[in-house]
Amino acid sequence: MRNRFAIATLLISLAFGGCSDYNKVYKSSNPNMKYSLAMDLYEEEDFGKALPLLEQLRDYYKNTDSMELIYYRTAYAYFGMHDYSYASMFFKDFTESFTRSPRSIECAYMALYCDVLEVDEYDLDQSQTLHIIGALQTFVNYYPNSEYVAKVNEHIDDLRNRLQQKEYEWVIQYYRMEQFKAAVYAARNAIKQYPDIPQKEELEFLALKAQYQYAAGSVEIKRLERLEEAKLAWDDYYYANGKTGEHYQEALNLSQRIQSDIQQLKFIL
User: Fold this and answer.
1) What is the number of domains present in the chain?
2) Integer Cα distance of 49 and 97 in angstroms
3) Residue 66, CA distances (Å) to 36, 58, 207 in order
4) CA-to-CA distance for 56 and 59, rounded, in angstroms?
């Protein structure tokens, strides 16, 4: 009863006392007062003030039934502060510490969602992004009937699309910088890694075009060999797209130029 009276008195005084009363609770050794204030601040979405108290409460309520809620709200408080790295860590810790909790699947999803949000849209780390995609797929395999599966699949599609877009932009950048050998490799690699990439036909054409430019700029002794490779690039383009490709006419004109250059070089050599 005394504790309830103390907490009630504290809450009334906080309405008038502001930060000084918050500091008193923070510095106090009364876990009940800390708990009550932390939960109130959390409900008010004042995560910046709730978090220091929640961190303290993890020591006070260790190995108690209250620990689950404290951990859960600590994770969401970090999430609310847009600190996705720490939020992910606490969500993951929650799933490992409270395996039987009805919140465990939710926290497993939220940990992955935080990882997705951590991915930098303009500077994707391919290996890390692929790792996250793998983790998302593992979630689907473990919890195929979860309410979060649809969202997880959306995250997978989004990350794959962003990786594909980055690979496509690398090809364009290499070509514009006249690094034609690198453009050929990047185009072929993008197609190999992502056979369903939306720009597949364009990348096949760019591989042909860049290979021709690479051959045209080569020393004479290497030019014939590289023109033959350009001819193979045309074969690859035509095999994949036939006459229906958006860049078919340009590719056909280029193949005729390649054949003409090969004949002239063979005559000279």
Assistant:
1) 2
2) 25
3) 12, 9, 61
4) 6
Reply yes or no on whether the pLDDT at 52 is more than 90. Answer: yes
CB-neighbour burial class of residue 116 (10 A; exposed 0-12, middle 13-18, buried 19+): buried
What's the whole-model pTM score? 0.80
Place of tokens 């383009």: 237
Pick the last residue of a domain from 43, 60, 77.
60
148: in domain: no
Task: Return the exposure string of 212-249: e unless at least 16 CB atoms fall within 10 Å of the residue's CB, then b.
Answer: bbbbeebeeeebbebbebbbebbebbbeebeeebebbe
Neighbours of 82 (CB within 10 A): 10
Residue 71 lies in a domain: no
Over residues 165-187, the mean pLDDT reads 96
Of the candidates 65, 7, 15, the residue with the CA atom closest to the CA atom of residue 35: 7
- Residue 186 falls inside a structural domain: yes
DSSP per-residue letters across 109-154: HHHHHHHHHHS-TTS--HHHHHHHHHHHHHHHHH-TT-TTHHHHHH
Query: Residue 184 falls within a domain, yes or no?
Result: yes
Domain boundary, last residue among 15, 33, 60: 60
- Contact by Cβ (8 Å): 141, 153: no
pLDDT average, residue stretch 94-102: 95
Residues 6+ apart with CB under 8 A from 85: 114, 118
State which residues form the domain around 1: 1-60
Give me the CATH number covering residue 190: 1.25.40.10
Q: Is the pLDDT of residue 39 over 50?
A: yes
